[in-house]
Design brief:
Blueprint (H helix, E strand, L loop, with lengths): L5 E5 L5 E4 L6 E7 L3 E3 L2 E3 L2 E7 L4 E7 L5 E8 L11 E7 L2 E8 L5 E4 L8
Parallel strand pairs: 4-10
Antiparallel strand pairs: 1-9, 2-3, 3-6, 4-5, 6-7, 7-8, 8-11, 9-10, 10-11
Length: 121
């Protein structure tokens, strides 16, 4: 089992928020400068579009030269956005791999990536 070495937030000018067609849908475009793991799948460094319709499933889709993507099961995140009102992704570093933990669209609207074998009740 991996021990988390550290947890950090990826944010700033790299995240752009755009309104989507549905009132509840949100889109975040983000450039991640390193490969990362999400629900057991490794995605390469690159530009990604993250689309959320509700708090249970998210689409992470590579843009431009990044042709990777996946659907991700999520649960509502507790707490608040570590970046304040800006969109943010949080990662944990395990040895030499980064794992996506949370996706924050704004100060109070975030989702936590569901992990196989870890259940929240």
């Amino acid at each position: 089992m991996w021990k988390p070495i550290r947890k950090f937030v990826w944010l700033g000018g790299l995240c752009l928020v755009a309104a989507a067609g549905s009132a509840n849908a949100s889109i975040v475009d983000v450039k991640v400068p390193f490969a990362f793991v999400v629900q057991g799948r490794t995605l390469p460094a690159g530009t990604y579009r993250i689309e959320t319709e509700d708090a249970s499933i998210v689409l992470i889709r590579g843009e431009g030269a990044t042709h990777a993507g996946t659907f991700v099961l999520t649960t509502p995140a507790s707490g608040s956005d570590p970046a304040g009102a800006s969109p943010a992704l949080t990662f944990s570093k395990h040895e030499n791999q980064y794992q996506l933990d949370d996706i924050w669209l704004d100060e109070h609207d975030g989702v936590e990536i569901a992990r196989p074998g870890h259940h929240k009740f």
